[in-house]
UniProtKB/TrEMBL annotation:
Name of this chain's protein: SMP-30/Gluconolactonase/LRE-like region domain-containing protein
Entries under Gene3D superfamilies matching the protein: YVTN repeat-like/Quinoprotein amine dehydrogenase
SUPFAM superfamilies: Calcium-dependent phosphotriesterase
Organism: Sorangium cellulosum So0157-2
Organism superkingdom: Bacteria
Length: 212
């Protein structure tokens, strides 16, 4: 399926966005076997050279895709047809790197290390905080019950309060170890399980948070 650059869950099944640098394809997966059930090529997703997709999320029957590079935007796609429904400028200073949804708002991670809470109605920024420092790039974000989980590109996964951006702690496995760099990537929650799309593929965790 090429290089997978985004993962989300619609309440029943996982969806992956794959890129082979020529085209992007949106896949609906059978979770038990990881076999594609449907595949939608998205030839019009990328409109400018030097632009790429980073992160997807399921929102109210549609999939949003974060686009970064020459153009920074959010693209809404019909999962039944692959048709692009809407394009909206991404409110990030540099490119968005991950997407999540809390039931009302989009959450974006970004190249600058900022995390944004964004209105799904008008794309306006409703909250912004720095995950780590401006020099730390984030590569994935997931929201769960008042928490924002952020995977760094070169360092550990950490958790912030979605209310005020306060650092709550680092993410560890059930054995208490920090997630290794090769296990960091795009994120989504399926119930209490954290799904990470990394260079190893899809990995399911029942993670713990170590309080600071």
């Amino acid at each position: 399926m090429g290089n997978s650059v985004g993962v989300t869950h619609d309440g029943r099944r996982l969806w992956l966005l794959s890129s082979n640098e020529v085209q992007h394809v949106l896949y609906e997966l059978d979770e038990a076997t990881s076999t594609p059930l449907r595949a939608h090529p998205l030839p019009a997703l990328i409109g400018a050279q030097g632009t790429s997709a980073h992160g997807i999320v399921w929102v109210d029957g549609a999939i949003w895709i974060a686009i970064a590079g020459s153009t920074n935007e959010l693209v809404q796609v019909d999962p039944d047809t692959g048709r692009i429904l809407r394009r909206r400028s991404a409110p990030t200073e540099l490119g968005p790197t991950g997407l999540s949804f809390d039931g009302q708002h989009l959450w974006l991670s970004s190249t600058t290390g900022h995390v944004y809470r964004v209105s799904t109605q008008n794309g306006g920024i409703e909250q912004r905080f720095i995950a780590g420092s401006p020099e730390v790039r984030s590569q994935g974000v997931a929201h769960r019950a008042g928490e924002v989980w952020v995977a760094g590109l070169f360092e550990q996964m950490v958790v912030y309060s979605s209310r005020d951006g306060a650092l709550l702690g680092a993410v560890t496995t059930e054995g208490g170890a920090l997630l290794p760099r090769e296990d960091l990537g795009q994120l989504c929650f399926v119930g209490d399980e954290l799904v990470v799309l990394s260079q190893r593929g899809l990995t399911y965790y029942r993670p713990e948070r170590v309080a600071e």
